[in-house]
Write a structure and sequence with these properties.
Layout: H1 14-17, H2 21-24, E1 32-40, E2 46-54, H3 56-61, H4 65-68, H5 72-76, E3 80-81, E4 85-86, E5 92-100, H6 103-110, E6 120-130, E7 133-143, H7 154-160, H8 166-172, H9 176-179, E8 180-187, E9 191-195, E10 198-200, E11 203-207, E12 214-224, H10 226-265
Parallel strand pairs: 1-8
Antiparallel strand pairs: 1-2, 2-5, 3-5, 4-5, 6-7, 7-12, 8-11, 9-12, 10-11
Length: about 270
């Protein structure tokens, strides 16, 4: 069974940023996957991207889903939301992204990914150290402790008085993890020193569990700007060398000029 809802949220959390697909889809053989990716550059800027993909069964049972989705709140909050596109297998995909300039801005954006029921809690990105030797720390907690409430809009919950489609889920004998998949990936500058995630194509990845368990999201990297450090060390040496080279050229030029002058002053002999 699939219900379609056109709704607005009071804050641009994951349910609106992902196009409300995690709210409007339930459940039978349908599946919705969401991939959240945090890319951070050496200077602390970067982009947070959320890609949500509903499979072909979702589209087949709700052919008007793309027209029913509303992204106004997310766009008002600065998110760039793509037009829903059809996947190769006939599903539907929406991509939302938001750039940031500092780790503090990234932390603020990650706080918009989900509400009190999860799945992303207490997410923080911190950078310490110098420009040429910095440590990056990403921390948080992954926990779904509200069932479908974790993906429901607060206003909708208040209206219906319970988790949307909870009865449908119970009657279907389908685990929520079979219908919804959520992964978080991060790429921080430098080499990984410690992490609770797993490697996934150069990213560190965590997969959200729907059994009520809690995961510690933590990764620490150290970024040593070798080129910048070498450049800073060698710059004074190069400068001194350049000065000596210029002085040598000037001295040689003066010697040549003096020699020619002396030759020109000599009196020719018979």
């Amino acid at each position: 069974m699939i219900a379609r809802v056109r709704a607005r949220t009071s804050s641009p959390r994951l349910r609106s940023v992902c196009g409300l697909l995690l709210v409007v889809v339930v459940l039978s053989s349908c599946r919705v996957n969401t991939l959240v990716t945090l890319d951070v550059k050496d200077n602390g800027s970067g982009v947070l991207t959320v890609v949500t993909t509903a499979d072909a069964d979702v589209v087949a049972q709700a052919p008007g889903l793309a027209d029913d989705l509303s992204f106004d709140d997310a766009r008002d909050a600065g998110w760039v939301v793509s037009t829903p596109v059809t996947t190769i297998d006939g599903g539907l995909q929406v991509t939302s992204s938001h750039i940031f300039s500092t780790p503090a801005e990234a932390t603020l954006l990650m706080s918009q990914l989900s509400g009190e029921f999860g799945p992303f809690k207490e997410m923080h990105l911190v950078r310490t150290g110098k420009d040429t030797d910095s440590t990056w720390t990403l921390t948080g907690k992954i926990e779904v402790n509200g069932g479908l409430d974790a993906f429901a809009d607060p206003a909708l919950l208040k209206t219906v008085g319970a988790s949307p489609y909870a009865a449908t889920l119970a009657n279907s004998d389908l685990d929520i993890g079979q219908a919804i998949g959520v992964e978080f990936r991060a790429k921080l500058p430098g080499a990984i020193e410690s992490s609770t995630g797993v490697d996934a194509l150069g990213y560190t990845q965590w997969t959200v569990s729907f059994d009520g368990s809690s995961q510690i999201l933590s990764t620490v990297t150290r970024n040593t700007a070798v080129k910048s450090t070498i450049a800073r060390v060698l710059a004074p040496i190069f400068l001194v060398g350049l000065i000596l080279w210029v002085l040598a050229i000037l001295a040689f030029s003066g010697f040549v000029a003096l020699t020619r002058f002396r030759r020109s002053r000599r009196t020719p002999t018979a």
